[in-house]
Amino acid sequence: AGIVRAGSFAVAGSGVLSITDTGSVAATVLSAIGAKTGGVVTCSGALTITGTTAEITDALVTTNSKVLASSANVTFSDDPTGAELAAINPKTSGTITLNDTAQNFSGTATQLAAAFDGFGTNALTGTITITGAAPSPSELKTISDATSGAITLPSTNFTLSGTSSDLADALSGNFSNYAGNVTLTDNPIHAQLGTI
């Protein structure tokens, strides 16, 4: 692919670029590079991408400026919404560091489960409000595991079905008003049954 000069950046019209930097890199730097090529930009170094939610979104999600950084760590300097974090989190397997782990989140079960996937147990302490449709067992498990904060369910009488382990995790969250039917697909141990 041909390289041409545009401002302070070299433009690779349709080339494949590899960024090998390590350490902390501003999201704006990566999105600027991503926007200057019609090809694929891959980050192969051990990166920590830093910036605001909008800047990180441009670097990892926005079609015209994104780069591939599948193992990068991400550090936010402001508070993403549940939907924004749900779009960013699947783009990397690295550690995500929020600006404030006590921030409150609101969103659908699908959004919040995607946002918190891979988070450590009780990584968050803020309140979580699930909106829209009732969560699936796996979604509720991911959300419950991720936070010690109060969880507000979208309703109290939806049905859950799954293994004893999954449902014990799902129902171990910080909420007390669930009144739906539960179907176990295996035989629980005493501790699991106590939680369920």
Set out the fold topology.
Blueprint (H helix, E strand, L loop, with lengths): L2 E4 L2 E4 L4 E3 L3 E4 H9 L5 E3 L3 E5 L1 H8 L12 E4 L5 H7 L7 E2 L7 E4 H8 L11 E4 L5 H10 L4 E2 L7 E3 L1 H7 L11 E3 L5 H6 L1
Parallel strand pairs: 3-5, 4-6, 6-7, 7-8, 9-10, 10-11, 12-13
Antiparallel strand pairs: 1-2
What are the key terms here?
single chain, 196 residues, alpha/beta, four-stranded parallel sheet, three-stranded parallel sheet, 7 helices, 23% strand, disordered N terminus
Describe the protein.
This protein is α/β, with parallel strands linked by helices and 196 residues long. The protein is 28% helix and 23% strand. The protein has a four-stranded parallel sheet. A three-stranded parallel sheet has the order 9-10-11. It has a two-stranded antiparallel ribbon with strand order 1-2. A hairpin with a 2-residue loop joins strand 1 and strand 2 (9-12). Helix 1 runs parallel beside helix 2, helix 3 packs across helix 4 and helix 5 crosses helix 6 (164-170). It is elongated and about 55 Å long.
